[in-house]
Each structure stands twice: as structure tokens, then as C-alpha cells.
Design a protein that fits this description.
It is a single chain. This protein is an alpha+beta fold. It has 2 domains: 2-132, no CATH class; 138-237. The protein is 18% helix and 54% strand. Strands 1, 2, 3, 4, 5, 6, 7, 8, 14 and 15 form a 10-stranded mixed beta sheet that branches. Strands 9-10-11-12-13 form a 5-stranded antiparallel beta sheet. Helix 2 (138-152) packs across helix 3 (215-234). The longest helix has 20 residues, at 215-234. The chain starts with a strand and ends with a strand. 29% of the residues are buried.
């Protein structure tokens, strides 16, 4: 879902553009002022909605939350064509990924949540195509960052880590994550094994995660890591960031590239 912000009523296509820009400014550092959103047509019969978040930097402390429980649908909109891209978009640590989504003959809904905030959601489309590229090192940043935080509370430092991925099928990966840790004069190694599954909403869902510790420090760190692994399994990574609600893709496919880069392709819409 895309955030809509602004005191003015949503009464025109230009007002929709301003509400989207204001919503993006709440969460992202926009490098090009008003150039990120283009709307053509009338609000009752929109022709084109183009959103370009390329080169936007994401502050994880300001990233959009999931909307609170939806209270009401304010209105529905028809749209002939949607073009959305963020190629690339930057996360902390200069990690980057790119995504593109195109769809035609869409129905959109303006929703209001329990905090009276408005959101724009994709309800349906006749056809659509989504591509997501997770660059080399991206998964290392996301996964190692979580492990570093988990053990840092106990004054354990992670010096380095390595991730190995292997294809298990068109929408599944095997995962091995190894980290070298230290605390004072103690050192150890921790290995995490499991699987990453891609679902129809283009969420990466970790599963069957286990870990083992080697050396005195590795074994000491085991109890601190289990809550982090449980959190990974309960909180999937949304590759589209929940940008368009619960779209259901058909046969999403993963290609594994150099440096653990991921290329994801999927189609959605009425068959």
C-alpha cells in the first residue's frame, strides 16, 4: 500500500499526485523534489500513474509501517496503466535493490486505517508484470545486521560473515550463513542453516532455521541467537515493501546470480 498524506480532499488527479508525494516524503529522502509521481487523466478515469523512486535512500527508522487495521474504503479508482520503478533504491550500508512493476486495466482503492491515515491499494488488474533485483551483498546486509544486533546486546562483536545460497527450486533457496564473533579474548564461529521461500506476494519467508556454535564463544552465543531466528521466520521480507497490498503473483521465479544476487520475476492479474 502507498501512503496518502495531506489535509486537502482527494478531489482531482493533481491532488492524488500531491498526496502521494507527501506520503513518500514522510518516509523517504526524495532527491528530485516533485518529479517522482506523474498522473494523467481525470480522477474518475485515470489514464496513467507513473511512480519513480529511483535513487531514493531508505532510512530504516522512517520506512513505512504496515497500515493499522483498515476501517473503511473511501473510494475506488480506475486506472488504465501503472508504471512503478525504483532502480536502484538504496538501503543503509549502501546496499541496493531494484524493482519494476507494470500493470494495465486496474482498480485502486483509497483506504482509511484506524489512525485516520489514508492508503492507496491495488485491488485488481487485468495483467501485470513485476521484476525485483536484489543486488550482491543485499542479503548479507539484511541478515548479518539482524545477527549483529542480537549479539551486540551481550557485548559480542561480529567481525565478518559469509552467506552461501543454492537453488532448491523455482521459488526456494537453501541458506548457509557463517559468522566469526569475538568478545574480549574469546572467539568463535556460528553457522545458520535453513531455507528461503518466495510466496505469491513476493515475500521471502525464512523456514527451518537452525544454528550451531563452534568454539567457546560460539556455543555461548547460541541462546542469544534463537530469538532472532524465530523473528526471521515470523516476519517475512517483502521484496515490494507491501507497496501494492496483497497482490497474488502467478509462479514467481528466482534466478541466483554472482555474489548471491537475486533476480525475481512474476506475473499477476486476471488469467
Amino acid at each position: 500500500m502507498l501512503p496518502l498524506r495531506g489535509p486537502d480532499p482527494l478531489s482531482s488527479a493533481e491532488a492524488l499526485r500531491h498526496h502521494l508525494l507527501a506520503g513518500f516524503r514522510d518516509y523517504f529522502h526524495l532527491p528530485r523534489a516533485d518529479e517522482h509521481v506523474t498522473v494523467e487523466g481525470d480522477l474518475e478515469a485515470l489514464k496513467t500513474l507513473a511512480i519513480d523512486l529511483s535513487f531514493v535512500r531508505v532510512d530504516m527508522d522512517r520506512s513505512p509501517p504496515l497500515p493499522e487495521a483498515i476501517q473503511a474504503t473511501e473510494r475506488e479508482l480506475s486506472l488504465q496503466r501503472l508504471d512503478f520503478k525504483a532502480a536502484p533504491i538504496y538501503l543503509p550500508g549502501d546496499a541496493e535493490f531494484a524493482m519494476q512493476l507494470r500493470a494495465s486495466s486496474l482498480r485502486l482503492a483509497v483506504l482509511r486505517d484506524g489512525k485516520a491515515q489514508r492508503w492507496l491499494a491495488l485491488v485488481s488488474a487485468s495483467e501485470g508484470h513485476a521484476v525485483v533485483d536484489v543486488g550482491p551483498g543485499q542479503l548479507e546486509v539484511l541478515l548479518l545486521g539482524g545477527l549483529r544486533q542480537a549479539v551486540a546486546r551481550h557485548k559480542i562483536h561480529v567481525d565478518q560473515g559469509r552467506i552461501d545460497l543454492r537453488l532448491l527450486g523455482p521459488n526456494a533457496l537453501g541458506l548457509t550463513l557463517s559468522i566469526h564473533a569475538r568478545k574480549a579474548f574469546l572467539k568463535g564461529t556460528i553457522d545458520v542453516h535453513g531455507e528461503l521461500h518466495l510466496d505469491a506476494q513476493l515475500n521471502i519467508r525464512p523456514a527451518n532455521l537452525t544454528c550451531s556454535g563452534h568454539g567457546m564463544l560460539g556455543k555461548m552465543a547460541m541462546p542469544f541467537l534463537k530469538p532472532q531466528l524465530d523473528q526471521w521466520e515470523s516476519r517475512p521480507l517483502p521484496l515490494l515493501g507491501h507497496a501494492f497490498g496483497e497482490i497474488a503473483c502467478r509462479e514467481p521465479r528466482i534466478t541466483l546470480g554472482t555474489g548471491n544476487a537475486l533476480h525475481v520475476v512474476a506475473e499477476f492479474g486476471s488469467p
